[in-house]
Design a protein that fits this description.
The structure is a homodimer of 472-residue chains.
Chain A lengths: L9 H11 L3 E2 L9 E2 L1 H20 L3 E3 L4 E3 H6 L1 H4 L7 E6 L2 E9 L4 H11 L8 E10 L14 E11 L2 H21 L5 E4 L11 E8 L5 E11 L1 H6 L2 E3 L5 E3 L1 E8 L1 H10 L16 E5 L6 H16 L4 E3 L7 H10 L4 E5 L1 H6 L1 E6 L5 E5 L3 H27 E3 L12 E6 L3 H10 L4 E6 L19 E6 L3
Parallel strand pairs in A: 3-7, 15-16, 15-17, 20-21
Antiparallel strand pairs in A: 1-2, 4-6, 5-6, 7-8, 8-14, 9-10, 9-22, 10-11, 11-14, 12-13, 17-18, 18-19, 21-23, 22-23
Chain lengths: 472, 472
């Protein structure tokens, strides 16, 4: 049963592949609460390990903060929280007993963490403070839910830092972008780093920068965000420190986060009509080893396949598929569908010639390799697969961007439209209307792009270049 | 400021050390919801890695299951859930909108997981199914909360398995006990494996076995439990499979779990009046390297300390404490308090003689070692520390057990009282009264202990040997 065509039916393809490839199951009877299945979970665990390594060398510390947030915390930060309010799930009872005050399930942990920061931070010696929380997040989104792309419960990492000066906070934003950028490269994902327009900045932040990745259906997925919070939260929560001269000052803060949505990006951007292609660094199985034989050769081929498996297991994540109830052809399809980056076939002739055949998932290219050379050759091919996937993703990004100077051309918006914008709310609203729900995602961070015309709506000349897209 | 005396003030000592050593902070203003601080969290991460390794080789798969459970699921399993009902936190609203049906925050995930199992399991080829869930758990305990020992939110792992036959489920219980037993050995913890009396068996289970560890204050901590569930949940949730002959049958199930409570056991059992002693496998820092010098020797000593740090970092988790604002004596106390298993001192004479001094946290024993021999010697000493900690814990366990034949002797119950019991509820209640809240924790699993008298309450002769203790 072939998968639905990716190009024409992305939504159907996505729903089908995440079920078949053991990524997510949406049959749990609470809307938006889905099971992150073993393959999906293992991908998340590997993302976690990659991020933790980077956090460790940059002085971040993991801790676990509470799920429940008192109502009065949210009221303290009502500006920040007003956006979350309709999505907040409230605990009101313990057994049959009403609680004296209701408690929110965390839609994000600023208030919880910053309350503790105000206790912990006393002097400049306590700064910088960089903490990270791996947690489940609950947002009772009123829009349509969709597994991984829009779950009501998802897993994420949120990092929250405090600094003595505005410059250090600014520096921290750059460090966070460097960390996320390196991580996304390792996941073979492409992205634009866009500074959100003021209308779409995280409430309480000075500015917000997002990693926006285009999916094959022409919509954009936010793969991560980072915010320079300035002192607004520090003032609300009283996060103060004594500087070297004995003066009491408010700290400067940043925060950044990414979630299991990243798995959706990985699946959508790398997958094809045969199924998933999982980047080698994330793949639960990197090599599927498949013995091929007729009855009389079974013993000798299986024996050699086991030897190869033992050797390769020292270097790679290997699965020997010697199940007898399935044909080699069935196994090829199965491991292709599941996105295993490399297949190793070994048959009677290969045993005689002391060799094996490697088949790449991404290009389907076949290579015959002498057994002693396998580990080095495989390492080389896995690296090539990573770089091919990254190049494809970059090509997808590149092709998804086009310059648009005429409002009516926004009507068929796919990917990013690069437009000139005067900065006004009115024109932003008009862009939204014309692009059927598209929105200004922001201007490129750290680059001043030269305008190529007048405001796409009002025709004013004082404009800057922004990217418009429909987002998940 | 010395810590409170462990032996005389265990409760105070525990509260103080978990705060000072960065394990848990209870100043968050929701009762029983505490912060698992970086050192505590890192210990949990290492426990997680150790357990995941054992799960992997025994065919368990991790997945993530939803936090929220529909009320009707709990009603389906009312026998099982009646114990949890007063402790359940209920979500009743999304924003200002009441939900059509209220949703429970998981106090455990049987109902959630078994609903999905009934969808996933179709035939004998789907069995055995062994899944594990790393999750936060909410139980709004009405008793006094206490960080790590009795949190209202805690982190845990729960594994849930399905099997074709009762024998395989029985076998799985043994496998789970082997896994937990090996893990607890690695954590240097001692325990009795006690089969709970029928009065205290997990509702719905055929039998429950717990790992009970005595703490220095004479109370017992349950470090893990495993349950043979038989077919009771399978029948409620309709978890059926087609066997090889085409007959539809209910599966047999087991489940087992352990939580961040384990961290409390590690702290309480290994700690002393100087602070924590963290077993080498779990320690965030295994070796604290402390250069000791007067001003003129500073450069040469620090240089050598950095070299040693670089070499040892390849093999161990090392922290070079070359902070200038603290004296060596202060650093000794600090790293002792934090439980770093090994200290390495290096001074001017050591540089000349190309050596360093190692000081064990557990015995305070000092050894001078030539630098080239350091890695091997350290490996050896860390193993010795592990085995010393385990032996101490076993001694604590051994000394905590005494035979009691007279009810009045239960009044001063500390540790385990070994008693003869007829099995009746009445006598169980009497034991509870006499032991001021102590309870029958069960009989040794897998061993038939010979009675040494008559029922401690009613004097009946048909008795078995059980262990009575006060538990956390």
């Amino acid at each position: 049963m072939p998968l639905k065509n990716l190009k024409d039916n992305f939504a159907d393809w996505f729903d089908e592949i995440i079920r078949k490839a053991d990524i997510s199951d949406n049959r749990y009877p609470v809307k938006g609460f889905n099971i992150l299945m073993p393959t999906g979970y293992e991908i998340w665990e590997r993302i976690r390990t990659l991020l933790d390594q980077k956090f460790k060398v940059t002085g971040h510390k993991n801790a676990y903060f509470p799920l429940l947030i008192p109502e009065e915390f949210l009221e303290m930060e009502s500006e920040h929280f007003s956006g979350f309010v309709p999505e907040v799930a409230w605990v009101t009872h313990r057994g049959d007993t009403p609680l004296k005050r209701k408690l929110a399930l965390r839609p994000t942990s600023e208030t919880c963490m910053y309350y503790m920061y105000s206790i912990w931070i006393r002097s400049h010696a306590d700064l910088p403070l960089k903490m990270s929380n791996w947690a489940n997040i609950i947002r009772m989104d009123t829009k349509n839910t969709k597994p991984l792309l829009r779950d009501r419960e998802f897993l994420w990492n949120e990092a929250h830092t405090c600094h003595a000066t505005a410059e250090e906070a600014e520096q921290q934003v750059l460090e966070s972008m460097d960390i996320y950028g390196t991580l996304l490269d390792e996941l073979c994902l492409s992205y634009l780093t866009l500074q959100r327009p003021p209308q779409d900045t995280f409430p309480g932040a000075i500015y917000s920068i997002a990693f926006d990745s285009p999916l094959p259906d022409g919509r954009i997925l936010q793969s991560g965000t980072t915010h320079n919070l300035g002192q607004s939260f520090a003032k609300v929560f009283g996060i103060r420190y004594l500087d070297v001269d004995g003066n009491t000052k408010h700290v400067f803060q940043t925060c950044y986060g990414l979630s299991t949505r990243l798995i959706a990006a990985i699946i959508a951007i790398h997958g094809d009509n045969q199924g998933l292609i999982i980047p080698p660094r994330l793949a639960p199985t990197q090599i599927a080893i498949i013995p091929i034989h007729f009855k009389k050769e079974k013993k000798i081929v299986n024996q050699k396949a086991r030897e190869v498996t033992t050797t390769l297991s020292e270097h790679f994540r290997v699965f020997l598929d010697d199940r007898e109830q399935f044909t080699p052809g069935w196994k090829f399809n199965e491991h292709e569908m599941r996105g295993v980056p490399l297949r190793l076939e070994i048959g009677p002739r290969d045993v005689v010639q002391n060799q094996a055949v490697l088949v790449r998932r991404d290009t389907r290219e076949k290579t015959t390799v002498a057994l002693p050379k396998l580990p080095n050759k495989i390492r080389e091919i896995l690296d090539e697969i990573s770089s091919t996937l990254l190049k494809r993703a970059q090509k997808l990004l590149h092709e998804s961007i086009r310059d648009v100077e005429d409002l009516s051309h926004l009507e068929t918006l796919r990917g990013f439209a690069r437009v000139n914008w005067c900065g006004s709310d009115t024109c932003s609203e008009t862009i939204k209307e014309y692009s059927s729900g598209g929105e200004i995602r922001g201007a490129k961070h750290g680059v001043s792009e030269k305008p190529f015309g007048q405001c796409i709506v009002c025709g004013k000349k004082n404009v800057h270049v922004v990217y418009v897209a429909q987002a998940y």
